[in-house]
Amino acid sequence: MSDHLIIFDTTLRDGEQSPGASMTREEKLRIAKQLERLRVDVIEAGFPASSNGDFESVRAIAAAVRDSVVCGLARASEKDIARCAEAIGPARAGRIHTFIASSPIHMQMKLRMAPDDVLAQAVKAVGWARRYTDDVEFSPEDAGRSEPDFLCRLLEAVIAAGATTVNIPDTVGYTMPWQFGGLIRTLRERVPNADKAVWSVHCHNDLGVAVANSLAAVMNGARQVECTVNGLGERAGNASLEEIVMAVRTRKDVFPCASRIDTAQIVAASKLVSSITGFPVQPNKAIVGANAFAHESGIHQDGVLKHRETYEIMRAEDVGWNANKLSLGKLSGRNAFKTRLAELGIELASDDALNVAFAKFKELADKKGQVFDEDLQALVSEEAVTPEREHYRLLTLRVVSETGEIPQARIAMAVGGSELHAEASGDGPVDAAFRAIERIAQANAKMLLFSVNAITTGTDAQGEVTVRLEREGRVVNGNGADTDIIVASAKAYLNALNKLHSGQEKLNPQLAA
Ligand code: KIV
Ligand code: ZN
Asked: Residues 389-418: pLDDT tens digits?
């Protein structure tokens, strides 16, 4: 059996199904490039038949990524599979991942199909997918609650039809680790052609055991794990990529395989996903939480100072902590700026976009002096660097806030070609600024999320704000960063309004299956 553990990242597909985590094509492209730097084996880039936006994103990622396989999801229908094939067409290596539900409850209540018809449809789907590519993955959805006998028949049939990877999803996060490990073992033992496919697992975290289930599966022969950065995903999320990768690496004494992930890129990937989705990482989250390597108690600190391994099983720098090198300063030129962005995997779409980003960088360097990699990431995450999309632009903002007084904001904004002014009061300075913006924009959008994070440490750090807006069922995330968090908030709000305005929003993706 292979000693290579394939890491299949589904942040851009299952992760995006997390309510409020929808991303624009540009944002997905940036994450895909970071996943490639992380050396993920397979990137599931989206579900092309679910919307034109998803189709375009998968196609753009297929064209941009060279070192990872680019995969698209498709229901077991000829139309979905053809659309998926078209989307992954530009990929150097492309995969079609097709699925149909196999549990009694899903077959009876959702599909209203008999098991034999599900099996026949699955076999046909794999056949259709094989017309386009030799790399075909099949998933029996809700396998965790499916009958093992039926799963064996189904998996044998799809492998015979040409599936090269069979993926066992615990779709509702119901299974316990010893059961899930046992299921993988049983299937591999009982499916006669089991050795003709790679066995994969896809675990959800409803009971908090997605990573444990995935690792139990690896111990029982799974050689692909499907996971997401920060464990992003539907409901309680998917198995977290960083936890699986670091468990297998740290405990190489017990795991019979290893991934090819460049672990030093993990923290950068985590921060990028968090900043784009606006989902902060909890401080005590394993591997990527701000406190994951912090020692507070005196006994622990003393131990670590004397001998690091007394309390540390991994090195922070191995996952990319402490890597926030001073990258540029106010004397850095356009070329150095462009080169550093390229090193961070950031490619701006045009010279105009680069000029706008460079001007913002200079402004920031003047204010802060030191500009870190995280600052650069935040700077380009404001889509405002694409000037043609900036329908609303902040010109000036004055906010007065005093103990015992009602905060007041006065704003000047460029809207289309004209300059408009408004004043408003609010419960707090941010509220006042948002009300002033709304007086001008009259967007009537509902705010679903407002979150503020410090990008780096120190009181001169930039605050990064995410604002999530919803209008008529459409959801957008706006980002803004500034050393002044009221300004960062206004920028984030305008960034979200620009996305609503330019139609970059997308319907919150739902699996229609
Ligand atoms: O959770 C699930 O079952 C899925 C499948 C489409 C693999 O996401
Ligand atoms: Zn899933």
From this structure: 689 999 999 999 999 999 999 999 999 889
Q: How far is the CA of 491 from the centre of ligand 2 (A)?
A: 34
Best residue among 17, 47, 73 to mutate for probing ligand 1's pocket (most ligand atoms within 8 Å of CB) is 73
Cα-based torsion angle of the residue sequence 276, 279, 280, 286 in order, rounded to the nearest 10 degrees: -100
Residue among 194, 191, 226, 189 at smallest CA distance from 211: 226
pLDDT score at 373: 76
Q: Is residue 45 packed enough to be buried (19+ CB in 10 Å), middle (13-18) or exposed (0-12)? A: buried
Distance 378 CA to ligand 2 centre (A): 29
Distance CA 144, CA 140 (A): 9
- Per-residue model confidence as pLDDT tens digits over 312-362: 899 999 999 865 555 688 888 888 888 888 877 677 778 888 888 899 889
Amino acid at the residue 369: G
418-425 sheet: strands from edge to edge: 392-400, 408-415, 418-425
Residues of the chain below pLDDT 50: 383-385, 505-513
Q: Given the CA of residue 141, which atom of ligand 1 is nearest to it?
A: 3
Structural contact between residues 327 and 372, judged by C-beta atoms closer than 8 angstroms: yes
Please give the Cα distance from 155 to 175 (Å, whole number): 19
Distance 408 CA to ligand 2 centre (A): 46
Angstrom distance (rounded) from CA 425 to CA 281: 32
Note the pTM of the prediction, 2 decimals: 0.84
Residue nearest to atom 5 of ligand 1 (CA): 141
The pLDDT assigned to 382 comes to 62
- Contacting residues for 21 by C-beta, under 8 A, at least 6 apart: 15, 232, 277, 279
Ligand 1 atom with the smallest distance to the CA of 234 is 1
Q: Report the pocket of ligand 1 as residue ranges, CB < 6 Å.
A: 14, 99, 139, 141, 169, 171, 202, 204
How many degrees, rounded to 5, is the angle at CA 249 between CA 243 and CA 251?
A: 95
| Ligand 1 atom nearest residue 172's Cα | 1
Task: Give the residue, by CA position, lying nearest to ligand 1 atom 2.
Answer: 171
- Find, among 401, 395, 465, the residue nearest to 429 by Cα: 401
Rounded CA separation 52/74 (Å): 14
Closest residue by CA, ligand 1 atom 8: 14
Instruction: Tell me, in angstroms, the distance from the centre of ligand 2 to residue 226's CA.
Output: 9
Ligand nearest to the CA of 200: 1
pLDDT in tens, 182-203: 999 999 999 999 999 999 999 9
Tokens of 202: 């896809």
